[in-house]
Description:
Order of helices and strands: EHEEHEHEEEE
CATH class: Alpha Beta
CATH superfamily: Mannose-Binding Protein A, subunit A
CATH topology: Mannose-Binding Protein A, Chain A
Largest sheet: 8 strands, mixed
Number of strands: 8
Strand content: 25-35%
Helix content: 10-25%
Distance between the termini: 7 Å
Amino acid sequence: MAKGSPSVATALILMMLASTCLVASTQAQSSEFEDIEILHTAVNPDNNKTYHLLTASSWEDAAFRARSLDGYLTTIDDAEENTWVFDTFAGYGDQSRHLWIGLNDVQDEGMYRWHDGTPFLYRNWGVDQPTGGDDSDYVHIASTNMGNIMPQT
């Protein structure tokens, strides 16, 4: 996996407004990912969570950038949140975007986990997904508003 390579997917991170906890190692990594910019920020009126759309990057770099902003790549907990995220960010700036989310099976092939450790309960897989395979560990929301698996870069 080529770390730092641009991807077809932009990242979507989630930040809880009340969260103020910092991870010590995050500040040191922050400067490495400053070229990953925030394109758009929105608050979901249904759950009051703040989301940031980041510029295109690898999943891993996006995850580090999310942590540097005191957040995580987003989790999708239900159909309403999935629809709101897609409607708010997938066509932002009149550009069709694939959105990295915090779901992956890097640690254990076929066992998907959220980046922030929350349980993986809501599923909205695209046709023939997940595809599996060692190089396809990261999930993004595709232009069909379904989860698809792809390599991180």
